[in-house]
Each structure stands twice: as C-alpha cells, then as structure tokens.
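Appendix B. Extra example for self-study. Work through it before the problem class; the solution is given directly after the inputs so you can check yourself.
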Amino acid sequence: MKTAAHHLSHGLEHTIEHLAHLLPAQGPIGVFIHHNTLHAFQHLPFDEAVQSAARLYGNEPYMTEAAYRCDFERARITVGDLDVALGWEADEPIIPFLLDRRALRRAVLLASPALDDAAEISWWLAEGGVSSQRRQLFEACRCLFRVSAGTASGVPARQPPTPPAVRALVDPLMIRLCGAFLDQGVAYWPMPDRQNGFLAAVRTLFATTRAVEPLPGLAAEMARQHRHQWTALQTVEEMLRRLDISVAAQEDFLRDELLALGGWAGMFYRLQEEPYLAPHERLPCSLMEYLAVRLTLVACAPRVEAVEAPPPDAAAAELVMASALFAAAEALGYQVSDLEALSRENRERFQREVLAFHPIERRRVWHVAYEYHHERDVLRPIAERLQKRGRRRVEGTPKAQVFFCIDEREESIRRHLEELDPRIETLGAAGFFGVAMDYAGIDDPHGVSLCPVVVKPQHAIREQPVAEHADLHERRRALRRLWSQFAQGALKSSRTLWLGWISTAILGLFSMFPLLIRILAPRRYGQLMARLNDLFLPEPRTEVTLMRNDEHGHHLNEGLVLGFTVAEKVDRVASVLAPAGLTTRFSRLVVVLGHGSTSLNNPHESAHDCGACGGRRGGPNARLFAAMANRPEVRVALRDRGILIPDDTWFVGGYHDTSSDEIDLYDLDTMPREHDGELAELRMTLDRARAANAHERARRFESADKAHNPKQGLEHVEARAEHLAEPRPEYGHCTNAVCIVGRRELTRGLFLDRRYFLVSYDPTTDTQGQYLTRLMSAVGPVCGGISLEYYFSFVDNQRYGCGTKLPHNITGLVGVMDGHSSDLRTGLPLQMVEIHEPVRILFVVETSPEQLAATINSIPFVEELSRNRWVRFAAVDPENSQISVLRPWGFELYQPEPGETPRAATSFSWYAGHRAHLPVAEIEMAGNR
Amino acid sequence: MDVISMSSDPMRTLLFLTVALPGAGFLVLALSWLVGVELPEKVVARVTGLIYTAAALCVAGGAWLMRAVHLPSLHADYGDWFRVGEYAFKFELYFDGVSLPLLGLTTVLTGLVAAFSRTYMHREPGFRRFFLLLHLFGFGATLGFAAGSFDLLVGGWELVGLSSVLLISYFFERQGPVTNALRVFATYRSADVGLLVGIFSLHHFRHSAALPALDLHTLDPQQATIVGLLLLLAAMSKAAQIPFSGWLPRAMEGPTPSSAIFYGAISVHLGAYLLLRARPLLESSPVALGAVALVGLATALHGVLVGRVCPDAKTSLAYAAVTQLGLIFFEIAMGWTTLALLHILGHSTIRTLQFLRAPSMLHEYHRIHAASGGLVDGGGLSLEAALPFALRRRLYWFAVDRAHLDRLLDSAAVRPLSRLSAWLGRVEQKLAGGEKLAVRPVPVGATLSAPMPEEVDVLHD
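Solution. Structure tokens for the complete assembly:
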C-alpha cells in the first residue's frame, strides 16, 4: 500500500518535472541568454514542433498567410519558389489524368484565399454582390460535397478546465505573492519567512495570523497544511484529490495550471535549477511549492458553475468548408458542370485533398518557399564569386589585423574598415576569444562568468589597479561608495513619509533640471555625466591578474584557480588563432575587439550584449587575450604549434559598443613605443569606420534623417544610447539570417547588410576537422538560439515574445510585467524584432559535404538541430568550389541560376536612401584581389 | 483681489491662450483625423512642441504682466457660454498665485512628456491617438486650473478623467487594460457625483459657484459641511485617497509617459487643487476640515505601508505618490496652503522624472549595487521589526493586499451593484421578451506577422 502511494507520488513528481520543460526558460532579465523558445520541442522535426506547440499554447506556428501573400506580392517569394517547395513533397493523383496534388496546391496558393469565417461568408453571400455564376458554384460546392463538421480544422482551440472566473480570482493573488517572494531588493520590506521557501512563507502568512482571507477558507486550509506539515508534493496530491482530478486527467490539469502564469512558474523553475542566476538574493525556489500554493488557492476558490461550451456550430463549419472547396474549384477554373461530372469517388478525394490543405498547412508550404528564396539569395553571390571572380584577399602581409566577434552586427564595421583601408584584414571569432573566466573588474562587487553559458569557468581573473594608482583607486572606491549611499537614499527617500515630505516638497522642483536636459538634450547629458565622472572619479590604470606562472601553487578562490598558467594561456591563444588560419602572416598590429551594448531605460539591455560572453560585455576577454598573446613565453610555446608570431607584432585588446559605436582600446601604455605611429593611423581608420558603421545602422531607423553624413550618423546613435525615451537603442540581432564559417576571402567586399555571422575558419589547415568541430560546437548553439528566439518572437510577438515595451513594468529586478499585474513577459519585445525576417539560420560552412556531415554528427546538440531542421546547412567545398545544400534527404548540389550580383562603388552608394533589407552586392574596393 | 475691468487686453489674451492652445491642438488633431488626413509623426510632434512651448510662454508672460501692474489676481470674463433664464454659464477664468504656478507646471510637464513620447511612441500604431488624448488632457488640465468658477472646473475635471481612462485602455487589444480602465472610470464617475451635487448645493445655498470663493464663510457651518464633504469625496477619488487608492496601480496599464503625466504629476493633484480652492468654505466647517485632515493622514500612512512591500517599479511609485498626496491633503487641512502648493509643484516634477525612468530601475540598482561594493543595505529603519511575530506577518499581508481596500469596495459596492444590474437586465429581458443580441467577438492579438484582416475581402472582387 505504502509502496503504491510512493509510486504514485513518484509518478507525479516525474510528470511535473516533465511539464516544467514546457515553461519559458528565461532567467532573471538582467542577464539575457538567447535560446530556442521551443527548446522543449527540439527533439521533434521543426514543422511538427511548431504545430504541436501551436496546439498546446495557442500560439502562431508561422507568419500569417496574409504576411506570406504580401511577400509574394513584392516578389520576396516567387512562383518558382513555390514550385520547388511543392516539388519537395510527395505528389499523388487526385482525379486521374486531370488533377494531382501539386497542381491543386499550387492553384490554391496562387489564387486569392478562401474566406474562413462563417459570419464573413454569410455576409459575403448576402451583401457581397456575388455574380450569379459564382453563387451557383458556391451552392454546388455546398450541395455536391458531403460536408460535415469536424474534418476541416487547423489548430483546434484548447479549453481550460479551470473556469475563467476562478482564474480571475487566483491569478492576481498568485502574481502578488510570487512578486513579493522573488523580489530582489525593490521592496523595502521583504516577504517574511521567505528563506524557508515559497510554500512555508505563504502558509505562515495565512495560517498563523488570522489574516483577512482573500479566498474563503484559505486560512483554515493553510493552518491544516501547517499542522500536518505536508511537503509540497503531499500538498499537491491532497489538492488534486480535493479538486476531484482523476489520475488520467492529472497531467492536462497540471499543465494548464502551470501554463496559466507560465512566466512566473518558469522563473521559479529556472531559479530552482540555477539559483545562482538570482541577481542579488538567492532564494529557495521550487516549482513544486509554486504548484502547491497555486492548487491550494484554486481549491479554496469558490466553485463556479462550469459554463457549458457552446456546441460546435455545424452550419458554420459547413459554410467554412464549402468556402474552401469553392475557392479551390474557382482557383482551378472549374465550372458547376465540371464538378457535377466528377464521379462520387473523385469528388470525395477532391474534398479530402482540399480540406487537408488547411490554413496551417498552407502557411507551412509558404514558409518553405520563403526560406528557399532566401537560400538562393545567399548562395548565388558566393557561387558567382567562386566561379567567376575568385576569392578576394589582401596580398602580402596586411597592415593590421582586427579580430571582431562573429556577431552579425560586426559585419558592417568590418566591411567599412576594409573599405577604408584595403590593407587591413578583419577576422571573426566567438567574442569570448577562447578565454572562459570568472571576471571581476575594479568596479564590480563580485565576479561574473564571461563565457558561453554552456561553459563553466574554471579560472578567476581580477582587475587590480597598478601599484602607483592604488591611492587613486582607494579614493575612487570611497567616493563611489558615498555616491551609492546618496543615490540609494535619493531613490528610497522620496518614497518614505518624513524624508519624502522634505525631498518632494522642498527639493522636488530641482529635478526639473535633469528632466529638461535628459529629455531635450540626451546626448549632451551623457557627455556632461562622462565629464563629471572623469573629473571626480578618474579611473586608475589597471592590470589583470592573469599570471599564474607557478604550476603548483594554485591560489584558490571560491573553487576557482586564479589566473592561467603558461600552458593554459598558450591553449587559449591557439584556440582562436589556429582555426582562423592566422598562423603566419601576422601584421605588426593585431587588434582584438570584444563587444557589448549600453542603453538607458531598457530592461532588455542585456539581450544586446555578447552572446558568447553569456549575455555580458566582452571587453575584458579581448583585453586578456591580447595580454596573453603578447607574453614572450607564450609566443615561444606557440611556435611549437606552428603559430609563428613575429617579435614585432603587438596585440591590442579593445571594446566595441554596438549601441553607441564607441571603440575603446586597452593597455596602450604597455605597448612598445615603436607601434605608436601605426596605432595612431589605425585608430583614425577605426574612428572613420565606426562613424560609417553608425551611419549604415542609422539607415534602418525611421527617425534618422536619410540625409545624414557619417558624423551625424554617429551622433544619432550616440543620442540613442543616452536617450531615456528610446525603446530601440539598437536593433540588436534583428537582422540575423546567415552564418558563414570560412575564410574572409569568401565574403570580403560583399555587402552583407549586417545579416551574416562571420566565423573565421581556414579549412586548408584543418585536415582532421577538429577545429571545425570546436567552432561548430560553440557557434551552432549560440547562432541557432539567436535565430530561433527571433523567429518565435517575431511570428507571435504577443505570446512567444513579450509584446510592446511601452507598458512594461519591471518587477523584483527579475522580469517585466504588462502594467501592474500580469504574467512575467518572456521573449523579445516588439521593438527588438520588428524588422526581422523569420528564417531559420543558414550555416554556410567552407568544407566538404562529407566533413560537414561528420562534424554535425559529432556534436549531439547540433546534430539534433540539423536532423530536425531547426537550422539549415550548406557546404562550400574548398577543393572544387562547389556548393551543396543539406536537404532532409542528404546533400544536394546547388545550381546557380543566371544573373549577376549587383555592383556598387562603396557600401554607402549601395545603401544610401534605403530603409529595407538590401540584396547582397559586390563593393568595388580599391586595391583588392 | 480686485478685479476685472482694469485688466489690459494683452494680459487677458495671453492667459486665455494658455487654455485655448492645448484645446486648439486637440481640435487640429481630431479634425485632421476626422477628415482622414494622416498627419506624419513628425508633424504631430512638432505641432505639439510648438503648442506647449507657446502655452508655457503665455503663462510666463501673463504672470509677468500681472506682476508689472501689481495685480495679485485676475478674473477674466470671456463672455457667456449659454443662458437659461436667470442663469448664465460664464466662460470666466481666474488667475492668481495658485493657478498660475500650476498652469506653468502643467504646460511645461505636458510639453516635456510630449517630447519624451515623440521618441517613446515612435512607430506605435496608436501614435496619433496618444497625442490626441494628451492634448485633450492638456486642455482639460489647464481649463481645470484656470477655471473661474466651479461650474467650469467640472468641465476640465471631466476631460482629464476621460483622457485618463482612454489612455489606461490604450492597449485595448488586451483584456487587462480594458478591465482596469473600466474600474478607474467607475471610481471616477461615482465620486464625481460628489463634485456635481456639491456644486448644485453651492448654487442652491449661495446662487453662485464663482471663484475665488472667498465669501464662502457666509455659508452656515451645516451647509459648509455638506458642500465640503461632497467636494472632498470628489477630491479623494481623483487624488487616490483611501478608500479609493486601489485604482492608482491599476492605472499603470497605459504607456509609461501617460502614467508619468497623469499619475505622477498633474491629474492626481487636481483633487488637491479642488480643496485648495474650496479652502475658505472648509474653514467654516470644522467637520469637513477634520475629515480632510483625517483622510490625508490615513492615506499617507496607508501609502507608505503599502509602498514598502511593492516589488514592481510602477506600483511602488504609485504608492509613493499616494503618500505625498495624503500629506498634501493634510497640509491643506492645516491651512498651510503655500506649503501645499510648493509640495504639489515639487512632487509633480520629481515623480514625472521617476516614472519616466522607471524602465531603467534594473540598470540603476545594479549600478548602485556595484558602487557600494555589493553591500546595498536593503531597508532602512524598520519599525515593523519591533512587532511580535504574528502581528508582523499580519501587517505584511495587510500591506501586500493593499489594506484589503479593493476587496472591501468589491463586496460593499461592486458586487451589489452588478447583482442589481444583472437583475434589472433580467427584468428588462422579461418585459421586452427580446432575444439576446449576438455579438461577434472582435479578433484580438494583432502581431507583427499578422496584419489585421483587412485582406479578407480579396475574394469579393
């Protein structure tokens, strides 16, 4: 008996664990990690996954049919694309010798869509001025086919078993309690007893205090639970019993209860699994306790008579089906007589086929065509270049080499840099530059992981002031502490009684000054603040504690080792240089730029930071990488690995802010003076490049003047970063679509419109494919996650995304709500995705198809993404310059269609005056080839 | 406090413009919309900027002119709106040391919020609707502050209420904003009964509701108590005093800048302004005066207690505002009118800034946290720590549940009323014997990839 009960509860635990994966996986919003929104469905093929998720959550699986048709109108999808998409699927005769499936589907897609709302159809029949001929055809469709309800449906609606009236009582209460429990320091008075867990805290609140009950009998129920000292699991079981939920119905019921406030439940689960994600206070979170509280509230809510769902309207369903048949018949040019002439059997087959091609199915085909078109647009210019023009590269030793993150936002600045000075070579490597570490800068209270989220850093790096600046640092620290006390006081005081009285009545009017400047001259305000900072808080010169030259004496610091040994340094430097093929041709100056993004009034700020640094800023990684590569003992060891860094080569680390387009270079004081001249020249080119980059970015912003010059473009983006009212400080990864893993020669001089992740990879030095495996295991999940998060947040921004930013309200420093009481909103806001094209990312890898297949298969995560078509792959064979595309049935040789890539003198002349996505173009750069 | 005739014309014109300009802005936007002209965002923003800059200059100019001729106050009559028998509804404005600073504040803050919204609301489908309502609010607020009689004040008061409700339900495609807007609307309307009946009684007792109501001492204490309490009721709902304060967090459903100008700045202070104007009347009624003081103090305590447990940015600001509004009521009751005025000005300004910065709360907390070296002290002086265990938890729940006020209002007013209306509905149905009206559900949840179904009539042609 006991074992049976034990078994049962074990089953329940299992069920809940399983259901937890359906919840949004987003953690506290301060660190935003892009990931596949439908991670729980990743084991399913893409189309099956989005459609089951659509059934489960009631979300959109693809763009709307209207959107695809709109793209068809503007030739973003062509008839040819549709034919290819239909050609990939099995054909079957419907009416022998007269009609097959492809022809039917083609006709239906190309004709105007069927009306699918019964009221609309009735209105159209009555008032639409329908010609008698069409009316006859419609009537024929209605009479000739045996239409019965229940066969033509796309996504059936889900019925919540808990009545909405009960939800209306329970949800606000849950939101109030969860908000109080998870709060990371906004409330002055934190929830009592919360260190004992959610269930215990809520129980104490109601059970021991004779509180005014929000629901009848709640206090008594809580007291009972308190008395019995039920665990969360026991409480859930007990409440299921009390609510009369049969074992068979349990899973559905629990799923509904969890998804009712999926954002909050998901946050509990995330913090249960990864408590260290909590920005300030670690709390004992448990999804089971969340569920225990929720079910107790549901059980105590007054029983509401379940409102009978209205029976399905048979007449309406019949009308909708008739309309679909009518649209198909009309699309095929059938007359009434044609339909009447069909045999009964053929008629039934026709009906079945038409109804099987329901709206979701149509959208699926549209989407295949939409992506196929994109694929051709991507591959054609590369194929043309390979066949006609050959690769473009810098002859001899480049003047300088600049490493950027692979981020597609860096594509444009790389292009501008090469355009401005064709002797410069740019390279792309994942923005943590091989340095996975726990890092604390001089201004940081504690260390944070600067590496991809899948990696757990083993090494701690601390920034320290150099000895002669120790005093300065102390003074700065003291001043900052003083400031923090003042700022904290100001923040809190206006909300209290006595201090608030003084601060609002007497000092309140003084806030008119910041109000005026910040709204009317945001850029000036930023400059003023920067100047004040320089004046009062001068930054000391610093160094990082990367030295650990004694192999044995590990300094232990929270389980982390402090610094890197020589061998570890060598590994890290080699891990970036070798795959990129940079082993000889070193220029005298190699700049390594990490990136991040700064913006104000933006809860989603972290989503713009470096994904490879775990949603943080990658400046320190670049700085460290450069410092390691500059060490003589490292260079000596690198020689053994075939990486020959000349003695007169110097590495400089730096940071690129993708929002304000500022570039900082680090540790210039340690650079040998003989590089000064080159650095000054490079610095100038970088400044021109970032202005050009800002100008190109500004073209996408509707509020930027098209007539701007680069300087004004830079001012425009700087103002954006400083503006309190700016919901779009930058467009982030909004334009991501492609990832190219290969040599820069493949893409150098191509205008890629900030849509391509660019990973430097030299297949000629990678005979075993080990570099490729290492690159793909980092790049695959990161780029795939970004692409899929944008896909879902775009196709259903209200439900997969978090809707418009404008009513967002930060709660507890963990997330945002709409207004004062809503579910935690997860996903990306409208303002971040609005110019996105929802295509699954296309990886174009410079390697043989066989090698690519082997690499994919050797990384389980990437293999799953690939097998289930969550991402797309193509291989560019370095041997014969042929391109093969990975289809579900294997690699297929790509045949370029005729046509030529457009040419433009400069990037500027190509994009000037345009706001929309632009096709790839060849930029004629002087001195190239 | 004398008077009309000596006012020179430029002064009158300038002061008239402070009210007329926002009104004209509303008319321009509304008419252009009505005739189907889609004004581009830039034009809307520019017109708005011009209007509020001009209005603010008009206030400043008017005040300067008044000062130049040593005129402490000005009662400007711009003619009758309409006449019914003996009664004439005069369009008269009244300017003095109370209304002029508030008019200046309103025009400046509305202008700043408009400048903010130009960027914030960019590309929003409801951009023009937002600015239209902002102008309606601007007109209502300036009219309310400049009104020369209680009769006219009601007009401004109602326009502010209307625009407030329409902006709360700005995102009407979701259920939450609509439900909450309705709740706020109901709260406003039921308490506005106090304002209307109060003014009727003024007319009844005194045959005039003109401002400044200095001769209101002439009312006997009983009459003054009746009118005073009625006006207090109206002021309480507008200024979110207990027991009505529950609507204020619900009003945070709209876009951030509208929350700032309405619930941080102008709209909530309109209630305090009403009391400032009714001050002479209150003086002759100790009961009413006591009630104002009591409501104010209780609200201040309520706001500070509830505010302490709020974990979200906007609700926390809402209760911070409630606290200070309570104190302002208290100041008015104590007769510290200059302080109250200063308090209104300072509080509006700081709260506007705070609301506009609410989305950067995360950023600020992390900065402070870092600067303090990770040692942020969460709370300050915690009196509640002195309470015994059970009482402390009980008080916590009391605060989290916002003093159970919404629950009380629900059971005392909302549910009986809806039961009554449901019953009336049944009676009507029985009497009329009609069928239920079938209402077609409106499609909800427009997304980027789902343009609203204008395309559906593709089939028709």
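Self-check: The first strand of chain A starts at residue 93 and ends at 95. If your reasoning did not lead you there, revisit section 3.
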